[in-house]
Amino acid sequence: MDFRYILAVTFTIKATDEMALRIIDTLKNLAEGGEEKLRKELETETHIKDISGQSKEVLKKILHGYSDFSVSTIDSFFTRILRSFAREVKLQIGYDIELKQDDILEKTVDDMLDEIGTNPELTSYITDFVYNNIDDNKGWNIDKHIKELAQEIFKERYRERKNILEDIDFADTKDRVNELTKDLKNIRYNFENFMAEKSHEAEEIIKRHNLGIDDFSYNTSGVMGYLMINLRKADKFEPTKRSLGAYEDRSKFYAKNSKRISDLNEALDDGLENVLHNVVDHYNENKKEYYSTLAVLNTIYIIGIFEDLSRKLRDYRKENKLLFISDINFMLESIISGDNCPFIYERTGNKIKNFLIDVGK
Predict the structure, then answer these.
(1) Which CA distances in Å does 138 have to 133, 134, 135, 149, 240?
(2) Phi and psi (nearest 5°) for 148?
(3) pLDDT tens, 150-206?
(4) d(CA 24, CA 3)
(5) Could you tell me which residues are beta bridge partners of residue 155?
């Protein structure tokens, strides 16, 4: 088989060099009579008896036509294809490919954050984001979080079906985000406020009957610990096993040998049992909406500043005549469709019959 019809691909330049060297070394060893195990496998599969002679001939052809020895990274192969379609995708003259897009993104985020104080809208978003993190005990340092979420800009699901060279209109994004944020905060507040009110209601009931948490089963680890302690913590709303037990059977509120069963039952009749039922029912009916709201609030401030980040990335592309490697994959998707694949190989001058892919260890 002619080596010119084989494309070997891997993921990094270092791995590419290693793969090319490994291929040459293996052919050299086969030509010199080594690689006994591999030789037998090749003889069985190809029915060629003179593996040494064939290896020597292939090695000679590669060394005399090394430019046709196709070992490259996947990114380099895609770049080669894209260059052959520069006119069709309207690429700028003299553009270059930026492989280290993560470094550029990190720098862009830093440049954007430098606008805090001079860009009122951005400053407002960042301030809200910091306060939200502090409220959730996540600290005030948001750089890392923004950079992690900003990776979405390079992903297909973010830019699906959009031409990367066209400006994306985010004109009303922040207004819509502001409206949505208010609605989400109301959902969170109403849920948490309901739980807190029920917790205080439970406390008032047991005080009226001169009871304390210690008078109930399992003390702070039991149903009253859930009602009077957990409900005042945003991450403790889920009913505990013991509170669910008391929900099904009111006698689980107290120990069988309690000396104040009469007082405890009076407190339950006075509304304490209803408080537990209200809390558990409210949790089950609204938990999906509440936790979904928390998840969205955790990232919505990033969505709000995507306009600024996208703008800076677009400006960086234009100023430096760059394409990111993720841009190439996106653009190739628009080129490669249906029966276009044979045309692509013809256009790039490649007649690939076999692909050798390094999948690693």
Answers:
(1) 5, 6, 8, 16, 25
(2) -65, -45
(3) 777 776 655 554 443 344 344 455 667 778 888 988 999 999 999 999 999 999 999
(4) 12
(5) none
